[in-house]
Amino acid sequence: MALATTLTLGCKKQLEEKPYGFLSTTNFYKTEADANSALIYAYSILPDLDYYSRNFIVLTELPTEDVAAASGKSADEMLLDQLSVTATNGILAPAYQFPYVGINRANLVIKYVPNITAIAAASKNEILGEALTLRALHYFNLVRLFGAVPLHTDPVDDISQTNLKKSPMKDIYDQIIADLTKATGIMDQTVRMGRVNQVGAWGLLSKVYLTLASAKASGSPGYDFVTSADDMYTNAKTWADKVVNGQTVYGLDPNLVAIYDVNKKLGPEHLFDASVDRLGVDEGQYSKLPLFFMPNLNFRLPNGTYVPGGFNEFLTEPGIYNSFDAADKRKTQLIISIIYDVGDAGGNKGPTQILSITDSYYRPFSNKFNDSGWQTGQQTSANTPILRFSDVLLVYAEAAGPTTDGYAAVNRIRARAGLGNLPPGLSVTQFRDAVIQERSWELSFEGNRLFDLRRSHKMESVLKDTYGKTISGDPYYFPIPQAEVNKNPNL
Amino acid sequence: MRKYFYTTCMCILLLWFSAITAYAQQRQITGTVADQDGLTLPGVSIKLKGGTAQTGTDNQGKFSISVPAGENTLVFSFIGMQTKEVKAGPNQTKIQVTLQNAPRDLNEVVVVGYGTAKKRDVTGSVGSIKGSDLIKTPAASVDALLQGKVPGLQVISSSGQPGSGSTIRIRGLGSRADANPLVVVDGLPLGDAGNLKQINPDDIESIDVLKDASSAAIYGSRGANGVIMVTTKKGKLGTSRINFSSLTTLSTLGNKLDVFHDPVEAATIDNQARINAGIAPLFIGQNYGGTYYPSLAELRGIDPNKPKWATNTDWAKLVYRNPVSQNYTLSADGGNEKTKYAISGNYYNEQGLAIKNGYQKYAGHVYLEQKLKPNVTLGTNITVTQTQNYGQGLSADRSIIFPAYNPDGTYFHIGSNDFGNPLQIANEVLNKSKTIDFLGTAFVSWDIIKGLNLRSQLSYTYGNAVNDNYQPRDATSTGYLFQGYGDINNYNGNHLINENYLTYDRDFGTKHHINVVAGYTQETNTVRTSDLQGHGFVNDVLQNENMASATTQFINNGLTKTALQSFIGRANYSFMGRYLFTFTGRADGSSVFGENHKWAFFPSGAVAWKVNEEAFMKNITQVSEFKIRGSYGLTGNQGISPYQSLATLGSYKYFTDGGFQTGYGPPYYNDGSNVNSKVFNGLQNKSLKWETTRQLDIGFDLGLLNQRFTLTADYYYKHTTDLLRQNQIALSSGFSVIEVNDGTIDNRGLELTANAQVLTGKFSWNVGGNISFNRNKVIAIGGGNQIEANGQDIEAIRAPLNYYINGQPANVFLGYKFDGIVQTPGGTNPVDGSAATVGDIKYVAGGPIAVGQGEYVIGNPNPKFYYGFNTSFKYSSFDLYVQFYGVQGNDIFNFSKFTPSAQLQAWTPDNPTNLYPSVNATRVYYSSNWYVQSGSYLRLQNVNLGYTLKANLVKGISNFRIYFSGTNLYTFTKFSPSFDPEVGENGQFGGNYRKPRQYSLGLNASF
User: Checking CA distances to A255, which of A448, B470, B893, B978 falls within 20 to 30 Å?
Assistant: First the structure.
């Protein structure tokens, strides 16, 4: 009996890896759909829990007079609240890393999309413009948080490219301005929820110029490189003017509460949001940010929404709460001080609780982050605003100074809040201080106050002198996180 | 040579099998074989010397063999007996043969990978254990049974959950990527050790552990963590046996629980903890969050307006049980000159201590071998296993003040966000996994010319697993978060292996003997997974049966393919039977390596000197064996996930334009921690390769008085370089990590095994033991770092615990020093700068490690040594076996240290203790040696008392033994008495599935 078997055995090819279910840079960036998808990926970092849906708000709100860390929360939050931040503080690393992740993703779009041929020119321009705007936003956040940082304008695809030196703040701002200027020239004004268009890029650029202007004018540390505050104010006004007077897509929403209504995300004020939805699969696709503000009780909001327990992470500080005019609708409508059906396990009636600003545990809380469609669970559709129309309107007012235009702009904001006009005849400084104070009410809890205080050189005078907070570290720049210092020898 | 690999596609032809059968005049010889006590021996192999005829004895020790005319020599061999050659005269037709007990273990055969060797001729370090020595305790997987049996092999079984696996380490932790040894079953490289569920322990003939470089190098890039060779039963010549074994086991809690028994105590502690934290106490007779909290007076029964609080729930009684588990095996084996077979079936049913938790296994095994021609054998070896795992571990720590059920029969919740009712979890959470595994091998063995054999085998393994999970909306927090959470997870693995090797074994003259193995093997491994997840169901009735009805559905799927091609070679040369040399090498080409390093070569060499064979030793007859061994060589570890060396893209969704849209870009994964959990990992490394271990082994084997006393000792030094690890990179790159090869870990150690037959004869007494010392040291973490955390932040201490630090053992604990309890106010907590209040833990910061505010190395989870010893007695029909296992010198970080009984001794102004802090509901704890406890223990692991009926007392039953076995009977330890000290490799203990103490009744019968 005989048996013959022939086996052909393998060759080199068998050891090559052909990934299944993975795309790689060699088979991507070919079509318009690829370009769109790369841009969507760049956006998707924004609502991450380590960026706008949690960490960015924690980092920018705790140091100010807006909120304090509730007792028993993490040491890192306590130390941040006291502006006693060291490089190992765990809140800093993601605040530093996530903008860079976004930058790398934007850089990929900026590098690869121009080479795609199977795409309409308008689409290509819009995608590029949005990627440039995203890159500018991330650097704007980094430079305001940390000062001089490494400047990556190309995607990283090899280990040799990972350790860049710090670039001076001037270079960072030059890049931001160049990116936004280029972006504004190629973008359209179509409203796409969760994305930014030409108007948003105008607004962001005006805010960048205003930061440079006010920082130079006030002598805020680090901004000596700015040659002329007045030029910067002029630029800020010019770009903000395009938003305020040069378009018809966006405007002030007459109804304050509607701005934060999750069913009206396409309202007139939303220039740019970090967008989420409660049907997302994980935090970053949905947001838990509202729970940070809310007491850890079961209760109903005044609008009837059932809240199945917050985290009680933030306690509203008397500083902001008591600074509001009693009639200010931004206090009466946007801060909740009474809750219903407390302890309700769902469906039953419970007692009503009035929240006191002096309570050590349960305080009145911001109503800017909530979800009227809240089901049970912790997923909410609450977007985090990145740029609102009223923000740009106040940029315009501050840049314009005590002029007719300036007064008109700030008084539109005050009128909507149910307040009277600013007193006429204010000096330039008085007027600009008044606008910055107006911003604290208008943009409270939205991650603006820290930057406003830094650029106007008021960290000590407001936080320490007015509100009695302690400051034991550098109030103007956070240290570069230790994780970066350890790994990047070129810093 | 490399160029040849790269440029040529290789073809091997398996050729013709042909043979000539010669006929001559035949005659028959019959006889009986017995041992020195006169007991007949079944299964003795009988071969015609210089011919092909062979047979074996039957159940009565009888045989019959056909031989050519003339004088013949028959060779009788039997494991454990000295091989005997008997001449049969030309006219002799009947032979009575008596076999003498062999000097112990000298003739034993060990499996060394692509071949076997006599133990006395082995040059490397191989630990062996017979299957018959394993089956003393109930176990789903053989891994756990190896604990304390083989020196250098550490087995950690920290969970008592039915069907749970073990952590196996051979000669210490030598890798950060994958430190598990390779398991090879009947020549089939199966994968990581730890849960060898496919093989029924009853089917195992022997296990050989390849420890040093010389023996493990034949497995090249998978050998660095050691290799465990499992050999299953193959059937013996001449006999047909049917075996039946059963084991019925009663499990009880191994440790007394530390829980509150008095509701007043529980409520007092709870109130005090909240008062100390500055928040209002709950147990004051109030409604809070929908639950009534009785006052202390009411609990005591001294509130004039309220009856005494009646509830005092004994959760342990509700959650735990004393279950009965079963294990049955029915097998048959036997063989004749042409055919050998072994068939078995096993049913294993293990019930957990937790209610509604169990594990079931069905396993079948078939081995069949057929001689086609005198020099050609074909065979097949098939194993099929099905397992089912259901339920989960449950906690009995819940507040005793509240009941398990509401008056209406629904589950009681403490407030509306409470998802801890263990009865509800046990009854309503669906948690089930089913696996099916198939291992199949077909082989041909061809003796081409004298001494030259070709073996070619094709193996296929298939593994399938389906996990079902459903969490109802009010039973778990996940279920609540998603309003019903359903999941179906599918795994499908296919592994195809072809191995071909030639063995040339010959004597040259009287002084030279060589044995050479050369071969080529190739493997492909394909793993396909899919996951269906549904969030939000209308109700919980259908569980995960209709995933399409979920409000939102998520699908994930994946496929990975890996390929391995290898050339193997080994040469053994022995001179005068006393100088032995071994050279081994393997070249591995693996798809997971980066494109700059596709092929790796692992050489090794060993020498041994059998001193007792020297002329000058011949007069010292007391020494029956004295062999000195030395080996050195390279082995590798390719614990790399596929596609790590490539730049791939990942996807994520963003809510825009009214829906979720998919984006693509550099990937990330979630490391499982709650925050800061995304690891951005898409940066490619084309130079990614294997880890390399250089190992030196020096040892000796000593046997005295015809092997009545034996001692084996080995010293080893393992130096592992190019450690695979994720290197953290600058955050500003937009990535977190890159897979790299750098870093060095050393393991060095000493292993001793001693066995003694103290008494032989009617009353026999054996004693054996082994001890293993291992010193692990991180020489360099790599990347120029001094220190790197192993693991994420741990919630309880808000920091990682285990670290790699240059110059320290792996996984040491970092933390602050505990300096008693703060007794006077006014100080500062040096860790976070907060005011230190009385009753808090007093920390000492400013330590030498630049982590946090200056930390210290506060503990080491690696034992100084581990050891096992056993003793067995036999008198008449009774036998007794006792086994101990111990671990010495390791630390445990006990997150569960502050047990209820400890809380009752907590600091108060009236009890200014320095042992425990005050109770505090919101205190932030930091890592300190307050948590660290000694992990040393000595366990009375097994006592086995058996009674064997005389053979053939009942006709047809050749062997019948009943026995009683107790497992995990007592543990000597200083660890918290309510927990078991056998914890995971990283030394962290935070409560695990409790280990049972087991009492078994067993039966073995052969027909």
Answer: A448
Q: Please give the Cα distance from B4 to B234 (Å, whole number).
A: 39
Looking at the fold, whether A43 and A168 belong to one and the same domain comes out as yes
> B680 Cβ partners below 8 Å, 6+ apart?
A101, B666, B667, B668, B734, B735, B736, B737
Q: Is the pLDDT of residue B561 over 50?
A: yes
Those residues whose C-beta lies under 8 Å from the C-beta of residue A410, and which sit 6 or more positions away, are A394, A397, A422, A434, A435, A438
CA distance B480 to B429: 12
Whole-model pTM: value is: 0.84
Q: Is residue B474 part of a domain?
A: no
Reduce the secondary structure of B330-358 to three states and give it as a string: EEEEEECCCEEEEEEEEEEEEECCECCCE
Which tokens is B865 given?
A: 């040594």
DSSP E strands: which ranges in B845-995?
856-859, 865-875, 878-888, 891-894, 932-934, 937-949, 959-973, 988-989
Q: How many CB pairs under 8 A join A and B?
A: 296
* Digit-coded pLDDT (tens) for A7-19: 333 445 677 777 6
Asked whether residue A138 falls in the same domain as residue A102, the answer is yes
Residues of chain B with Cβ-Cβ distance to A275 below 8 Å are: 654-656
Helices (H), A72-120: 75-81, 92-112
State the average pLDDT for chain B.
89
With cut-offs at 50, 70 and 90, classify the pLDDT of residue B15.
very low
Token pair 């607004």 is at which residue? A203
What is the rounded distance in angstroms from the CA atom of residue A472 to the CA atom of residue B803? 31
Task: Provide the edge-to-edge strand list for the sheet that holds B84-88.
Answer: B54-56, B45-48, B72-77, B84-88
Number of separate domains in chain B: 3
Tokens of B431: 């948690």
Give me the CATH number covering residue B134: 2.170.130.10
* Beta bridge partners of residue A283, listed in sequence order: A286
Residue B488 clears pLDDT 50, i.e. is over it: yes
Mean pLDDT for the stretch of residues A399-410 = 97
Q: What are residue B957's phi and psi, to 5 degrees?
A: -100, 110
Q: Are both B115 and B226 inside the same structural domain?
A: yes
Q: Which of A6, A17, A38 sits opposite B665 (nearest CB)?
A: A38
Contacts of A194 in chain B (CB under 8 A): 654-657
Looking at residue A1, its pLDDT comes to 29
**Sequence-distant (≥ 6) Cβ neighbours of residue B622 within 8 angstroms:** B704, B705
Provide ipTM, 2 decimals. Answer: 0.93
Judge if A39 and A142 occupy the same domain.
Answer: yes
Q: Name every chain B residue with its beta carbon within 8 A of the beta carbon of A48.
A: 678
Q: Is B15 near chain A, with CB under 8 Å?
A: yes
**Mean pLDDT confidence for B371-389:** 94
pLDDT of B237-247, one tens digit each?
777 889 999 99
Residue of higher predicted confidence among B322 and B665: B322
B591 and A4 within 8 Å at the Cβ level: the answer is no
Mean pLDDT of the A17-36 span? 80
**Residue B934 counted as domain residue:** no
CA–CA dist B173, B168 (Å, integer): 10
Q: Which of A5, A6, A17 to mutate to test the interface with B (most CBs of B within 10 A)?
A: A17
pLDDT value for B631: 95
Band (pLDDT 50/70/90 cuts) for residue A279 is confident
Q: Is residue B288 domain-resident?
A: yes
Query: What is the number of domains present in chain A?
Result: 3
CA atoms within 13 A on the CB side of B571: 5
The pLDDT of residue A163 is 92
